[in-house]
Amino acid sequence: MSERDAADLRDAFAAVVDDPAAPPMPSVTDAAVAGGIRIRRRRAVVSAGGALAVVALAVTLAAGLPGAGSGDRSEPATPPSGPPASSTPSAPPSENPGRSPTPTRSVDPTGSAAVPSTGGARSPDSG
Amino acid sequence: MREAVREREFREFAEARQAGLRRSAYLLCGDWHQAQDLTQTTLMKLYAAWGRIRRDGNVDAYARTILTRVFIDQYRRRTWREELVEAVPEGHPVAPATLELRLVMRSALMELPPRYRAVLVLRFWEDWSVEQTAEALRVSPGTVKSQSARGLRRLRELLGTPAHEVNGR
Q1: Nearest residue of B to residue A30 by CA position?
Q2: Which domains are delineated in chain B?
């Protein structure tokens, strides 16, 4: 755009704003000051509220952390992974835990009669 | 005490500049009452940040930037507050040729999209550079250049048409 065009446009803008029919307008300074003070107060309230919310969130997070409030706890919070190691193998669970142990026979390698190792039950051979 | 000084400084600025701001606002919106609203909102926002703006310097440029952004925001949200006037003020008698030129130009300007209008007003009425305009409108300098060119072309098309057609839209 040439300088001339820019000047023409500026003149045209001037013609628009130099409007003798423009209504007389009162000053807006008082209203602007009052509104500006309102905006500043609102901003102050919002920023104070935001700061409070941040503090509340921090306190909540601190209280909810694992280990918070039990400083003398010596055990680890989580159990060790993997199966528990034991020194003695545990006995398999019996099918009928209410009954007495079933007699077992020990077999003599020489082929003689078997002798029940526990009493209470007689061998069918014993007569 | 500091608050009193701050308010006094602002009042001096506002009294001296509000007529100019209102004229720029009128070019943007095409209505004196809306221009008055825009000026008040602009000065209100300016006063809310007066301390910082005063320290940074170039208060005039800040005021123009706020005005343009407020105009675009309000136009986008269409939240103009309608005010009833008791009586239509009577102006001075105007020569028909001047009146026609004013009406034609104003109508053509209002035909442009608000962003184009804002670019043209800042570039050619406020005499801002492309970079200043881009910063005020939060767009790239390339966008300012293209919107400026398109706005001027459209304005020429509108002004090239007979006045009664432009006014009749």
Answers
A1: B11
A2: 1-90 (1.10.1740), 93-169 (1.10.10.10)
| Chain A nearest-CA residue for B43 | A32
Q: Do A10 and B125 make contact, defined as CB atoms within 8 angstroms?
A: yes
SS3 A115: strand
Residue A114 lies in a domain: no
Chain A nearest-CA distance from B52, in A, is 13
Q: Mean pLDDT throughout A40-66?
A: 89
Q: Measured over all CA atoms, what is the biggest interatomic distance in chain B, rounded to whole angstroms?
A: 60
Domain holding A48, by residue range, is 30-62
Q: Domain tally for chain A? A: 1
Of A5, A18, A17, A10, nearest to B125 by C-alpha is A10
Q: Mean pLDDT, chain A, as a whole number?
A: 69
Q: Please report the number of interchain residue pairs, chain A to chain B, with beta-carbon separation below 8 angstroms.
A: 103
Average pLDDT estimate for B131-156: 94
Q: Is A29–B50 a contact, with Cβ atoms under 8 angstroms apart? A: no
Q: Per the domain annotation, does A37 fall within a domain?
A: yes
Q: How many CA atoms lie within 13 A of A14 on its CB side?
A: 7
DSSP B122: I
Contact across the interface for A32 and B23, Cβ inside 8 Å: no
Q: ipTM value, please give it.
A: 0.76
